[in-house]
Specification:
- About 30% of the residues lie in helices and about 10% in strands.
- It has 7 helices and 11 strands.
- The strands form 5 sheets. It has a 3-stranded parallel sheet.
- The longest helix has 25 residues.
- The chain is globular, with a radius of gyration of 21 Å.
- About 30% of the residues are buried.
């Protein structure tokens, strides 16, 4: 039996709208929590060419405040953007030259899909590293007042980085708020819900509001679609540990910016939040709406690793939310 390796929506959308020879990748993921499902961030059957460039990714889990630099802000390092500190620029140049010789020799005799994909990934990385566009990742270029406005946590600084990447034309960027600066395990608030959500919301508000206002001030918001959401909601009732448990029946998300008809609430639950009373919406419908807002038909198909045509998303755009 063949198993289809589905791509993330970020990879699928980046494939549709990224320019072939851009210096920066089409998909950047900032501080993802990949310990519980790396496939949710990966390119799947689209291949490594469409994999995200991971910033502050670590090995699965990311600290809410990675080691701060001299500025006191977290260092949002980019995976594999530069050689280890023990390798000099001269050594790196010689190693790169040797790699190209060996790679060219191998490809002359093994010009199949996997080796060509490997070469493509490396060529894209090298093009980014040696371009001026790579300076977008250097947040020290931002005024101290601006950095302070976004907040000193990973999420806030990730939103600032997202604004810089939007300015450079990166088509798909995601920023994760997986855990707060005060600790705890993110929004999975089975206990101590109120204190945890307060801490998380403080970081969320600073980063998200600053991103929206900066994009608006720069004339970029009308062509940048923003979606804020999690994977499911929390129970309307508080449990015995002052927490809220998993509740996939109903929760909120926010759409804003380019392609979105804002200023409205769509859908409604009962007063106690336990049932949906108006305009039920599935996750696939939300993702289809995101695709449509970005100018990509959600029914666009890609050939899977098993040869099946697979749509980007099996859902219906919510027409009332589209401008």
């Amino acid at each position: 039996m063949s198993v289809v390796d589905y791509p993330s929506v970020g990879a699928a959308l980046a494939k549709q709208i990224a320019a072939e020879n851009d210096s920066l990748p089409g998909y950047v993921s900032i501080a993802p929590t990949r310990g519980f499902g790396r496939g949710g961030f990966g390119p799947g059957f689209l291949g490594p060419k469409y994999a995200p460039l991971v910033v502050a990714g670590g090995n699965g889990m990311v600290s809410p405040r990675p080691a701060a630099g001299a500025s006191g802000y977290p260092e949002l390092t980019v995976d594999a953007i530069k050689p280890p500190s023990s390798i000099s620029d001269n050594q790196a140049a010689h190693r790169l030259e040797m790699w190209k010789v060996l790679e060219d020799g191998f490809l002359n005799n093994h010009a199949s899909a996997s080796p060509n994909a490997h070469r493509t990934v490396y060529d894209n990385a090298l093009r980014m590293i040696h371009s001026e566009a790579a300076s977008a990742f250097d947040l020290s270029k931002e005024p101290a007042k601006v950095r302070e406005k976004y907040g000193k946590g990973v999420f806030g600084q990730g939103c600032l980085l997202a604004r810089r990447l939007v300015e450079m034309g990166v088509p798909f960027i995601e920023v994760s708020l997986s855990t707060s600066m005060t600790g705890g395990f993110g929004w999975d608030t089975h206990a101590n819900n109120f204190d945890s959500v307060k801490a998380l919301s403080t970081e969320l508000d600073a980063g998200w509001a600053s991103l929206m206002s900066d994009l608006s001030d720069r004339g970029l918001l009308e062509r940048t679609t923003i979606v804020w959401m999690g994977e499911f909601g929390r129970t309307p009732r508080i449990n015995g540990a002052a927490g809220r448990d998993h509740f996939p029946k109903a929760w909120s998300c926010v759409l804003a910016g380019g392609g979105i008809a804002g200023g409205q609430a769509y859908g409604r639950t009962s007063k106690d939040g336990t049932t949906i009373e108006e305009n039920p919406v599935g996750v696939t419908d939300v993702l289809a709406t995101l695709c449509s807002a970005m100018g990509v038909a959600p029914e666009t198909e890609n050939a899977s690793n098993t040869g099946r045509p697979i749509k980007i998303v099996e859902g219906d755009p919510i027409k009332k939310l589209l401008s």
